[in-house]
Amino acid sequence: MNAISEDRDDRRRDAGTLSDSGDLRMTPSQLKALKPELTAGIARPVPDPKPEPTPDALPVVVQLQSRKKRGTV
Q: Is 36 in a helix, a strand, or coil?
């Protein structure tokens, strides 16, 4: 099974999806400065690993992307 054909859990998708389609404008240096802030924010709510995680604690991938908005010069 690969990521494309994998059965999705809507609860996880809905809880973890973040999208900003507003008019956010940033320079490359601003994006670079934002990276450690986002990384720290992601790590903050994660508890220390336990020897026995709860049954609903599954491995996840957190992926943040920045790119030029479509239709802009």
A: helix
- pLDDT tens digit sequence for 11-36: 777 777 777 667 778 888 998 998 89
d(CA 42, CA 48): 13
Cα–Cα distance measured from residue 73 to residue 68, given in angstroms and rounded to the nearest whole number: 9
Q: Where are the beta strands (DSSP E) in 1-73?
A: none
CA distance 48 to 5: 31
Structure tokens at 4: 């494309």
Q: Provide the sign of the torsion angle of the four alpha carbons 33, 39, 42, 47, taken in this order.
A: negative
Q: Is the pTM of this model over 0.90?
A: no
